[in-house]
Amino acid sequence: MPAPPRPLPPVERWAGVRAGRARGIGWALCLVLAAALPGGGQPAPEDLTVISRAGRRPLPTVDVGGRTMVALTELLGPFGLRVGDDRQPGRLTLLRGPAVMVLTAGDGIVSVAGRLESLSSPPVERGGIWYVPIDFIGRALPLISDQPVELRSRSGLVIVGDVRVPQVVGRYQRMGRRSRLRLMVTPNVEPRIERAAGQLLVTFEADAVDLVMRDFAPDDLLRRVRVDDRRARLEVEVGDAFGSFAANSSPALGGSLEVVVDLRPAAARAAPPPAPDPRPAAEAEAGIEGEGADLPALADFAGPSTVSAIAIDAGHGGADAGTLGPEGTLEKDVTLGVARRLQAAIQRRLGLRVVLTRSGDVDVTLDERAAIANNNRADLFISLHANASMRATATGAEVFHLGPVEYDEPGDAPAGGERVPVVGGGTRRLDIVRWERAQLRFVDPSALWARTVAEELRARVPMSPRGVQQAPLRVLVGANMPAALVEMGFISNPGQEVQLASPAFQDAVVEALLQSIIRFRDMVEQGFPEEDDPLAEDPPADGSAPLREPLP
Amino acid sequence: MSGRAWLARIVFAAAALGGAWVLFVGLPRWFPDESPAVSTGGGDDRSAVGAQTVSTLYYVSGDGLRLVGVPRRLTRRANPTAQARAILEQQLADPPAPLISPIPPGTSLRAVYLTGDGDAFVDLTEEIALGHSGGSREELFTVYAVVNALTTNLAAVDAVQILVDGVEVDTLVGHVDLQRPLRQNLDLLEAPSDDWMPADDAPADPDRSS
To answer: What is the rounded CA–CA span in Å between residue A338 and residue B129?
Structure first.
């Protein structure tokens, strides 16, 4: 039985396929809202929702010339902006304290406190009312606001100030009669999962939840997943065939938490004779238990579900030129050139998010570089360098990853923080990681990542006889994700100096790295091949994966 | 009975005396000291004055691909710290051809400290960073020449932290972590291995589904 329709709050957002009736209600609500709004215009398909300490409120959007926009009047009060006195046609000045923002109708560049910020489309003045594209909220407002402002356009949320709104990316996968719902929660916030009439309630200790469902097709086990905004809760509406569920969670790449909910049909319980539970007691303790005890082994859940953000570190920069070729080519210029090419290629061809640790000729300390990758939740880290040798003949690329030898000291403080009880029973490990031990958690995936990069490089550029090495390289130490450093070639070698500065060689390196990312992502998504499986050797005692847990 | 007991005692005493002679006189005579035994204190100082010991120093091979250990005869010093200083001063000096020094020219030793728990702090002048050619490979060679020179020759040293002009540094030239004492790395002495390469170029099969 599907849940009966119930009155929807005005800001309810639906994920996945909407039932026809629900869609009708949603549209009707939008129309009602739009009619009540100043500014008029066509109703846009989705309004935005502003979440702040003061609570939630809708932020209506309008369709202006085919673009989703927001009436500026909606933003003045909440962000403390006032309109300046120097009224000129086609020009608007906004003030907040001493800061000034200038908008020009028809010009996509807005000046904010002396900085120029480009918008996806120009502001529009219509009937005395100014409209701005919604990315104005994420790009221009943070520059003038005294508190953080974040626009999450995929989920239509505007997050203002210090509120906790974990992002949940959901994937649903049918596996024969059973199915699996994976929720990647970023940052790591443990949910409570309970069964209610016709649905599972996934409640987060947060101010709101931001849900994105990917590739969702409803079936007889799961009808839809939606957000109950008033409670920071997901409502997972189950289908007629649903019988029971089992849930488990574990930390994943990039500071996320992966929650896996297995859905089973009602009559299927009798079919496979339940094998004796092979899981050690500690493993059962680590997860969230739903009803039913025959949880699949944790190894089934091994691996975070994907790689979605890449941190690219252009080595050296600013006063630190790195090494120098005989003709004067600077390492810092080569690394930045390759970083920019790689950034463009990843964005264009893979559509992944890219984090650059530097985008210009500036000094960035080694630890800052790892921190930038961590804070931007990158899933993979690649540091670009050019090598040098006192022998001018030295040639070829080398790839480095961090070895455990220097950092994994038995005398060090426990790696995994402390165990705390969770709501709903059991305990879980609170994931506090010391800087010096961040990369240690990824020793095996990093080795695999480095080897993958070396293999792809080898197909395209000359390799050094020392192809892949372990070394205590500082930039990798604090990276909280699989990380490797590439020395692309020897700038001290006159022939290689010319190569390193050439677009053709740089493109070859970029292609190798691009293919490495694709291969590594596939391995992450589909499970590591047996011989490469970083989880295969030395499984920790609690059965969790070293990908996500500190070494024992 | 008592005759036998006496005989056993005499035999035992003779064996003990013989063993002691072998241990304290014979062995040192048969095997002149080549080991870097500097871990003990005053006891062997008197006998060691003017004696020599062999220490291994580390240089870059002629092809620039690895470190090479070269035994050198050094005068044995009164204590491990003095021995460490002697080893490092020799390590900073020019190597025999065709080897290359991994330490930038002009670098000198400011001080060396040994802690009681196996760490050594080696304070070098700024030339080690300023005169460095850069690159991960050379920086690894520079750092591990110093680290290996102490850890492989002195039993009292397990790990070495390099200071530059008296202060801790992140790295020399942007790569190798010097924020903590490093243990010896003998991999850099081995010929490069290609075991990272796949047996063939077939991509690994990601077919294992969960």
So the answer is: 26
